[in-house]
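Exercise: predict the fold of this chain.
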Amino acid sequence: MTAALDTGTVCGLARACGFELAGVAAAVPSTDSARYRDWVAAGFAGEMRYLTDRRASVRDDPRNLLPSARSVICVGKLYHTPWPYSTHFDDRERAWISRYAWGVDYHDVVREGLAQLDGVLRRRTGPGYESKICVDTAPLLERSYARMAGLGWIGKNTCLINQPLGSWFFLGELLVSLEIAPDAPPPDRCGTCTRCIDACPTAAIVPAGRDPLGGGFVIDSRLCISYFTIELRGSIPEEQRGGTGSHVFGCDICQDVCPWNRRAPVTAEPAFAPRDFAPPLERLAAVTEPEFRSMFQGTPVTRARYAGFLRNVAVAMGNAGLEKFREPLERLAASQDPAVAEHARWALKQLP
């Protein structure tokens, strides 16, 4: 028999484990499940098969991951750092890496905090306690459950937004067999604002009036800079390359322009500080594969893989349009990797 815990106690324990946001949702199917299936059916996931294969149906119910689950403890870990936004950065010689990937891999940091919380709850509740830790690799509609748990609303840019703290959060969940009173979702406070939609260089955020699914908003991943520079293997559509600007891994534009991030606090977590803020493109173009692995070891950037990263660097050099990049691009154009070579040839044509 497990001991009962109230919501306030659980959220207090989560904050003591290093999370700035915490709340509880019931372990039942999300009201967003049908909308997610429609999003997949519309092809908006692109080539991200882990979102469309058998795991898509697993996302419908947390009990597919833990049959005894009764509650979902949702947490948010702040990663905002005191460095410029990409929208205030215009050094054409340097590369932009998404803020979330500046430091160590957040999966490890969030999982460590959740493991600590899990241990505390296990000691408090007794032998009948069962649990499962989820960070974003688990098939769970985590933003939907975070909204249900009162952590924030899902903005037009599809990020979870907390009214006083903004959207610079990593999310995690602890599925537990405990029956804990759930929190209530907050109201949507985006209102008529369309700054994220207007700022997206590749028009990846489809506003309500043009949403083929009807109602709300949706991200077409096939137009998203983060998708191009992280998830997509092979060739970036030529008509979209100019819109990627200096981004070589991920994109922050739709969060950078969000009014709710104007007063976003800064994290006290040293693990999320940048190892090498906005590294020079010329240096990145010259790294060998072992150097790439060493440079970005333990960070999310390795997800792009070496060839994909060089492809992105080539595009960023082309978008910079600087003559000084001709020599490094000529070297990349001779690459044995077809995608790297083709994107470097495209980039050379963009130079004056």
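Check your answer against the key: The radius of gyration is 21 Å.
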